[in-house]
C-alpha cells in the first residue's frame, strides 16, 4: 500500500514538474506571451452583441458603436457614451435614430453633441487585459467616469487590435499605435482640445495610457492632456511576473522569484515589457522641462488579488523622482509621504506631491479588489478633480 502511494506521489510530482517546465518554455515564445499578457481571446461577452449596448444596461442609443481607422490599416471597434443628463435632454431625438453599429458616426446626433459643445469633456478609456468594451465592470466604470458631471463628460472606449471586434493581433507597439489613433480621432475628428481630454486606464490600460501620454508630451510642440487617472497600475511586466497570480490564486512564474538569476534570465525573453516606471518618469521630466501643467492620479486597492497594490507606491516614486534633480531613494520618499499622508481610516489614505507644474496623487484604498473599484465614487471624484483643476469654472 505504502509503495503504491509513494509511486503515485512520484508520478504526480514528475508530471507536475514536467508540465511546469513546459509552461516556462512556452513563456519564452512571443505568441504564447501575447496570450498570457493580453488574454485577448478571452472575450467574456461571447453571447452578447456589442452592437446592442442596451444589453449592458444602457438606455437606447446612449451608446454609439462605431470604428476608428488606424495608421496600420486596421479598424478599432469603439463606443461613444453620452453623459446621462445630456442624453435625457435629447432623448426624443436620439430614440428616433436607428440603433446598432454606425458606419459614419459624424452623421449622428451624439457625435454632434460632443463636437459642437465647447464645454464638453472627453475621457479616453483604456481597458485592461481580456474581455471587450462590454465586459465585467467596464460598463459601470463608464457611468462612474461621467457621474460627477453627467451633462458634459463623454466617454470614448475601444478594443485594442485583436480584442473583441477589433482586427489584428496585440503587441506593445501595436496597442500603442491603436491608442495614438484613438487620440488622433478625439482631437482631429471630434475636435476636442487636449485640455478637455482625460486619459483613464485600468490594469493593462494604465501602461497604455502612460505610453500614449508620454508620446504626445514629447512632441514638438508638446501635447499634454488634462491629466491621467490610473487604476491598479503596474511597474513593468517583469516586476509584475514576480507577484502575479491568475485569479489571485494560481502563480505562473512568481515561485521562481526566489531564484533571482533564473528569474532575471527568464525576464530577458519578455518581448512586451510595458516599462511604465520609465515612461512615467520621462513624461514627468518632459513636462517639468517644458513647463507644461500635468496631473496624475494613481489609485489602487490593498485587497487587489491580481496586481499587488505595492506597484502603485513604486510607480509613484518613479514619477516623483523625475522632479527631484538630485533624486531620492524609495525609503526617503516614503518618509516624506508619511508627513503628507491623509489617513482616511477604512477608506484608505491619500498623498499628494506638488511641483510648480504638476500634481501627483496616490490613493490607496482598503477595499475595491482589481475590478470592482472601477465603479466606485473615488473614480468619479478623481475625474472631476482633474477637470476642475484645469478649468475652475467647470461645474
Structure description:
The strands form two sheets. A ten-stranded mixed β-sheet has the order 1-2-4-3-5-6-9-12-11-10, with helices on both faces. Strands 7-8 form a two-stranded antiparallel ribbon. It has a single domain (37-390), classed as Alpha/Beta hydrolase fold, catalytic domain (Rossmann fold, 3-Layer(aba) Sandwich), CATH 3.40.50.1820. Helix 6 (138-146) crosses helix 14. It has 14 helices and twelve strands. The protein has 395 residues and is an alpha/beta fold. The mean pLDDT is 91. The termini are far apart. InterPro entries: AB_hydrolase_1, AB_hydrolase_fold. Pfam families: Abhydrolase_6 (PF12697). Residues 123-313 form the AB hydrolase-1 domain.
Using brief descriptors, characterize the structure shown.
Rossmann fold, 14 helices, two-stranded antiparallel sheet, 10-stranded mixed β-sheet, AB_hydrolase_1, 12 strands, alpha/beta, 40% helix, AB_hydrolase_fold, 395 residues
Task: Briefly summarize what is shown.
This protein has 395 residues and is of the alpha/beta class. The protein has 14 helices and 12 strands.
Protein structure class: alpha/beta
Would you tell me the overall average pLDDT? 91
Stretches with pLDDT under 50, minimum 5 residues: none
Largest sheet strand order: 1-2-4-3-5-6-9-12-11-10
Number of domains: 1
What CATH first level would be assigned?
Answer: Alpha Beta
The percent range for strand residues is 15-25%
* Helix/strand order, N-terminal first: HHEEHHHEHEHEHEHEEHHEHHEEEH
Q: Based on the structure given, which CATH architecture is correct?
A: 3-Layer(aba) Sandwich
Which geometry do the CA atoms define?
Answer: globular
Distance between the first and last residues' Cα: 76 Å
Based on CA atoms alone, the radius of gyration comes out at 22 Å
Tally of helical segments? 14
Tell me the total number of β-strands. 12
Name of the CATH superfamily: Alpha/Beta hydrolase fold, catalytic domain
Helix content: 40-55%
Largest sheet: 10 strands, mixed
Domain AB hydrolase-1: 123-313
Organism: Lachnellula subtilissima
Transmembrane segments: 6-27
Pfam families: Abhydrolase_6
